[in-house]
Amino acid sequence: KQAEKAVHQKEEQSKTKCRKARRRHINLVAEFNHRQRKNIWLETHIWHAKRFHMVKKWGYCLGNSPTEKSYRACYRAMTKQCLLQDLSYYCCLELKGKENELLKQLARICSIDTGLTFQEASCLSGRFEGSLNLYQADRYPEGMLGPVTFIWKPRDGSENRQLWIWVHPALKQ
């Protein structure tokens, strides 16, 4: 019985590690990966988690409201024009194909009446980013999905083009 007791105590001792060992970088990375199984963390998650109340939305863990009672720091940052927002949770959709075919199909989900479209000359060159509102296919006034931003890859001589569209995670489907 004494020998079994000694073996059992050694097993318990090996499980409990000091705080320094638990907080080693390798262990932290493994722990963070384990925590993000349900909700994806942004690159700035640790920074935000210290300063914001975190909310789980759209499969991501996002900073919602600051924990500070005063908003002085944010106000000061806005007046000096250096306030940042992490939008890395936005989804990037890449479309590849012949330019004419892409434009033909994309014309069904946007309208000239609302302003800019995917066919805008300044955006087609790939030098400027554009933004517009997407609609359900062929349902312009009623079926609005939401705003998107897009940029074309500059032409490389072939008729095939690439288009990158950034959409909110709620619009991804």
From TrEMBL:
Residues 4-97 form the Pop1 N-terminal domain. It holds the Pfam family POP1_N. InterPro entries: Pop1 (IPR039182), Pop1_N (IPR009723). GO terms for biological process: tRNA 5'-leader removal. It comes from the Eukaryota. GO terms for cellular component: nucleolar ribonuclease P complex; ribonuclease MRP complex. This is POP1 protein. It comes from Spizella passerina.
